[in-house]
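Ligand-bound model needed. heme C.
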Amino acid sequence: MPLRFERAGIIFALLLSSSLIPAAAQMSAKGKISGKDFDNAAAEQAKRYLEEGRETFRFDTFRSEDFWGGKLKLHKAIAGEKLGGRGPGLSPKKALELGLKVDVNAIPKDVAEALNKGAVDLADPASTLVLLRANAVVGVTGFFAEDGKTLISVGIQCAVCHSTVDDAYAPGIGQRLDGWPNRDLNIGAIVALLPRCCRYQKRR
Ligand code: HEC
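Prediction:
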């Protein structure tokens, strides 16, 4: 290593130590921060990072909606013709068959009650939109127009592949298990839902 880099390193180390050591000495001198305080602060910080990371893992789409919605128009296939999309739409029953999971704790209370009474039509794509609006489809976020009804895009999260549920309510519906692989997800079948306009077509 050339000498001047070494010297720069030494100066940097000196700067660091001269700025840090007095600060640490000051703290202990005033008796304000003990080793235990440091441990507690570190534990607090670790907890905060875990919570933030969990939020990102569960709900951050990393703008994947630009691809799944913007380019592929998957939201149109989910909504179906009756609700402003294309084709028959994706019912909750079909979504579960494709391996998508429903977080039972995210289902709104009135919907849960209706579900218990058997009053939710699991063959109706409109019910899928209700679940999407409630953020109850694990790893999938629906984006809605200002009317709150029209699905205008859809994005995915880490959780779509890396979370599943414990099937406590019914197969595919239960408490979320983050970090457990979803072994039922059929990505091929999901992509095959895409409206005809947007599937890959071989050009001649
Ligand atoms: C489309 C599905 C999918 C999505 C979305 C996804 N992953 Fe993965 N991920 C996989 C698969 C499949 C593997 C396993 C690859 C292998 O082992 O060959 C994997 C592996 C991993 C691993 C390595 C695990 C290990 O034990 O080695 C980590 C860490 C990881 N993913 C984190 C993430 C994070 C963070 C996100 C979100 C930003 C994410 N993944 C989104 C499918 C996905």
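The pocket of heme C is lined by residues 156, 158, 160-162 (CB under 6 Å).
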